[in-house]
Specification:
This protein is α+β, with helices and mostly antiparallel strands. It has a single domain, classed as 3-Layer(aba) Sandwich (NADH Oxidase), CATH 3.40.109. The chain is 38% helix and 14% strand. The chain contains seven helices and four strands, in the order ααβααβαβααβ. It has a four-stranded antiparallel sheet with strand order 1-2-4-3. The longest helix has 18 residues. The relative contact order is 0.24.
């Protein structure tokens, strides 16, 4: 797949087949992730991979409950709270694989570094025929002691990017893009 085709074709997938993502494929995605640009070549990332269905289901329930419990301090649009309160809503859309990209330690550019690694991972997933989606609703819970413990992230690691991966059930439609504001400075 050509680079621009991958960039323009990648979508956030929210409907997955139950088929497991093979370990070799995950290794290739992680390899793509670690080739991302990063500040002063610190390469601050680590990766936690979860494929056990019951654990994914438990994390979904715990992350939803956590967001609902901190509603007063973490304002989001009302429709998101309605989804979180729905017992049938699965925060990971029943994807077979979750990859959480964490930074190994606190630092001034860890979020940027992990976000760049996540974009590489998601583009590589698209190129390999997988779908992916960054699950922002899970981020707050992964930052809790229970969240870190659940995925084996020790202190002082900082979970940054929970990415689900799997085979899309159907192709995700294109989303219209707004015209960007561009200022030419001369």
């Amino acid at each position: 797949m050509e680079l621009m085709e991958a960039i323009f074709g990648r979508r956030s997938v929210r409907d997955y087949l139950p088929d497991a993502v093979p370990q070799e494929a995950i290794n290739r995605l992680v390899d793509a992730a670690i080739h991302a640009p990063n500040a002063i070549n610190q390469q601050p990332w680590s990766f936690a991979v979860v494929q056990e269905r019951s654990l994914l289901d438990q994390i979904s329930r715990d992350a939803k409950a956590h967001l609902l419990s901190i509603r007063s301090t973490a304002p989001m649009p009302a429709h998101l709270y309605e989804r979180l309160a729905d017992p049938d809503f699965h925060i990971f859309y029943h994807a077979p694989t979750l990859i959480v990209i964490s930074a190994i330690a606190q630092g001034p550019w860890i979020v940027e570094d992990c976000a760049l690694a996540a974009e590489n991972l998601m583009l590589a997933a698209h190129g390999a025929g997988f779908g992916s989606c960054w699950i922002g609703l899970a981020q707050a819970w992964f930052g809790t002691p229970k969240g870190k413990e659940t995925i084996g992230v020790p202190e002082p690691h900082v979970p940054v990017a929970p990415i689900i991966v799997g085979r899309p059930r159907t192709p995700a439609p294109a989303v219209p893009r707004k015209t960007p504001e561009v200022r030419w400075i001369s």
